[in-house]
Amino acid sequence: DQQVKQNSPSLSVQEGRISILNCDYTNSMFDYFLWYKKYPAEGPTFLISISSIKDKNEDGRFTVFLNKSAKHLSLHIVPSQPGDSAVYFCAASDVTGFQKLVFGTGTRLLVSP
Amino acid sequence: DAMVIQNPRYQVTQFGKPVTLSCSQTLNHNVMYWYQQKSSQAPKLLFHYYDKDFNNEADTPDNFQSRRPNTSFCFLDIRSPGLGDAAMYLCATSTWTGDQPQHFGDGTRLSIL
């Protein structure tokens, strides 16, 4: 049973436009959500997170939106740059106790010049 | 820079021959995690240590063991690797508080001959 789903395996966007990556979850106990970025031959790098008490968190070009009623979150990258081309993983956890992250299968973003 | 370092980056072993992967950290985090990631799949948590307290996931095969001799180091031992154990193995660290991100190493890619 996949508790965190990223239904789009890939996304192509032109440089300067907005990239929107989506993630759905099924476990209502999740209350902390993260996005990681992964380049080939490197480990995942933390990008941005959001707690369930918020519905939006921004960090520079990156914004994460959380819709708890729909159990949906999204990552917006504006403007997209070629260096953003990577695989993006959504992850979720229940913060009571240790942080057991449940990951999605990732979305490969390609930003073309 | 504080970081998580995994050695080796690539490991080849023979079917059934024990292998050990290592992870070290300079972040002084008290929690260390081991994940298995197979191609096009989400990273899957195998186990974690909170200080010296070992916590196994229910579906982690007995073939996988771990040691944490001190705060900085953690090892993954695969006692009798099978072909299905070929994967990327990721080490991560975090503080105990659930609302802080995990920091990942670059992984060890394990191949089984």
Characterization of this structure:
The complex is a heterodimer of chains A (113) and B (113). By secondary structure, chain A is an all-beta fold. Chain A is built from no helices and eleven strands. In chain A, strands 2, 4, 5, 9, 10 and 11 form a six-stranded mixed β-sheet that branches. In chain A, strands 1-3-8-7-6 form a five-stranded antiparallel β-sheet, with no helix packed on it. With 113 residues, chain B is mainly beta. Chain B contains no helices and eleven strands. In chain B, the strands form two sheets. In chain B, strands 2, 4, 5, 6, 9, 10 and 11 form a seven-stranded mixed β-sheet that branches. In chain B, strands 1-3-8-7 form a four-stranded antiparallel β-sheet, with no helix packed on it. In chain B, strand 4 and strand 5 (44-50) form a beta hairpin. The radius of gyration of chain B is 13 Å and the shape is globular. The model of chain B has no long low-confidence stretch (mean pLDDT 93). The chains are: A mainly beta (113), B mainly beta (113). The A-B interface holds A 2, 4, 9, 32, 34, 36, 41-46, 49, 51, 89, 93-106 and B 4, 6, 9, 31, 40-45, 48, 50, 55, 90, 92, 94, 96-107.
